[in-house]
Amino acid sequence: MRSKPNMLVTGTPGTGKTTTSAALAEATNLRHINIGDLVRDKKLHDGWDDQLECYIVNEDLVCDELEEIMEGGGNIVDHHGCDFFPERWFDRVVVLQTENSILYDRLTKRGYSGAKLTNNIECEIFQVLLEEAKDSYKEEIVVAMKSDSVDDMNRNVATITEWVRTWSSTS
Ligand code: ADP
Ligand code: MN
After folding, report:
1. What is the model's pLDDT at position 171?
2. Distance set, CA 37 to CA 4, 8, 21, 69 (Å)
3. According to the UniProt record, where is the region LID (predicted)?
């Protein structure tokens, strides 16, 4: 049994996973692991996907890389997918959600356009990440949180920080 919880922060790109995870890490002293950065820095991929404009994540390499770290507990994993991590890794799965027009503005600001933009907006409309999370983890550990504004983010960080504070491995 780990002495500190592991948490997954997931959601469509642009919903605020990295910003929220960084604030959470600061508030809780847990370790923020951004899967995208890890994949790039440790080359845990099978090359670049020209069409989707992202690395082709090698899921086995990512899981091998993180196994020991996750066993130790105290991690915030930040990723826009959640179905390939072992279920036993996480004590809580947070799915961030953002209203379409707000997400649209965030993604265009990030330089997304065309199919990449449309795909991500559709991903959010159809709640793909929430469904994926519910399919992959026990429903009682999955929580959806609205991430439209800075107020939302501050409230989410406060709520999760309180949960981490009261978490115990026996619960
Ligand atoms: P993700 O990691 O999910 O792709 P980011 O954390 O990189 O998302 O956030 C994308 C952009 O949206 C950033 O410019 C960030 O400052 C902004 N942002 C994220 N969450 C919020 C929020 N709840 N309210 C306002 N702006 C936000
Ligand atoms: Mn991110």
Report:
1. 55
2. 23, 15, 13, 16
3. 109-119
Is 16 touching ligand 1 by the criterion CB < 6 Å? Answer: yes
Q: Is 28 in the pocket of ligand 1 (CB under 6 A)?
A: no
Strand partners, 76: 7, 32
Instruction: Quote the ligand 1 centre to 108 CA distance (angstroms).
Output: 12
pLDDT (tens digit per residue) in 141-169: 999 999 999 999 999 999 999 999 999 87
d(Cα 90, Cα 148) in Å, to the nearest integer? 25
| Closest ligand 1 atom number to CA of residue 153 | 23
Beta strands in the chain (DSSP E): 7-10, 31-34, 45-49, 54-57, 75-78, 92-97, 142-146
- Asked whether the whole model's pTM tops 0.95, one would answer yes
- Please list all protein residues whose beta carbon sits less than 5 angstroms from ligand 2, which is an ion: 17-18
